[in-house]
Write a structure and sequence with these properties.
One of its GO terms (molecular function) is kinase activity. The chain is of the alpha/beta class. 37% of the residues lie in helices and 22% in strands.
């Protein structure tokens, strides 16, 4: 296996989350890559920064964390992405996403197609498809990808029905939260029960693996005709920024390592809780710390 082999490719936005307690590096695909990297995987990030200090600092942070920046493009015109994140009374975040920014202009090239075709998983979200340039690049790479992992991030007004349904239809693994599930299934069904919505979405699009995160209530996994439910781990929440991204990274890691669906879900819930108990998306943790959460009573 060569030094340029990446088993997972993460495509999409890279940015700064401007939080009440300061600026933190973020962007869902990069957050996933950060956690994949610290869990022992070898992810590549395809994104774009501006020719500015914010971009330079992001690249420096990625280099320091040993996250490959080979496919991190630099835009000569548009600035590095910024998102203003604000928590509500339940610590759920709302986002004001600046547009246009550098990651709206991710260009396609042959080297990106090669690493995507050679990887096992291609992770992407709906947000990066908001602009024509990155949209075009994404859909070109989806043609090369093997296991396509869609982490839906519905951020109004940066999506539309036809785009989301198209992306779901192309995906092998789909992760979304309860609110997103309600919105998406409401486009083509009248079901109101959570489990009915999950079954309808999976059956309608023939999704091999479907994950629905429920915040403090845990998560539900539907895979190979079976349903797995995890009620979540109770922690004191600092903020929820990036906890879903960490969850996905942990789930994929355990799946790659050959763990059972229930085991992967359990580990993912613990990692998500670990990140939610700390500020920002790039929370450094050890497997031992996660094991401590796994030993706690599930409630």
């Amino acid at each position: 296996m060569g030094k340029d082999y990446f088993n997972i490719v993460c495509f999409g936005e890279i940015l700064w989350d401007i939080l009440p307690n300061g600026a933190k590096p973020g962007g869902a695909p990069v957050n996933v890559a950060f956690h994949l990297n610290q869990l022992g995987q070898k992810p590549a990030v395809i994104s774009r920064i501006g020719n500015d200090q914010r971009g330079a600092t992001l690249k420096e942070l990625m280099d320091r964390k040993q996250i490959a920046t080979t496919f991190l493009q630099q835009d000569p015109i548009y600035e590095t992405g910024v998102v203003y994140a604000k928590p509500d009374e339940n610590n759920n975040m709302s986002y004001e996403i600046k547009q246009p920014v550098a990651w709206d202009y991710i260009e396609s090239n042959e080297s990106q197609a090669i690493i995507t075709k050679g990887s096992d998983y291609f992770i992407f979200g709906s947000l990066a498809a908001r602009s024509p340039c990155s949209h075009k690049t994404l859909f070109e790479l989806l043609e090369q990808a093997n296991n396509k992992v869609l982490d839906i991030n519905l951020r109004a007004p940066h999506y539309n029905k036809s785009l989301i349904l198209d992306l779901i239809n192309r995906s092998d693994i789909v992760k979304l939260n309860e609110d997103e599930l309600e919105l998406v299934t409401g486009w083509f069904s009248k079901y109101t029960d959570l489990n009915d919505r999950i079954n309808q979405l999976q059956d309608h699009f023939k999704i091999a693996t479907l994950i629905v995160t429920l915040g403090a209530k845990g998560a539900i996994l539907r895979q190979n005709g079976k349903t797995y439910v995890h009620p979540g781990y109770k922690v004191i929440v600092e903020d929820t920024v990036g906890s879903g991204d960490a969850f996905l990274a942990a789930f994929l890691t355990k799946s790659i390592e050959g763990d059972s669906p229930a085991g992967a879900l359990n580990f993912a819930a613990a990692v998500g809780a670990t990140v939610a108990a700390n500020a920002g998306a790039w929370v450094t943790f050890t497997r031992e710390a996660v094991e401590n959460i796994l030993l706690k009573t599930v409630s």
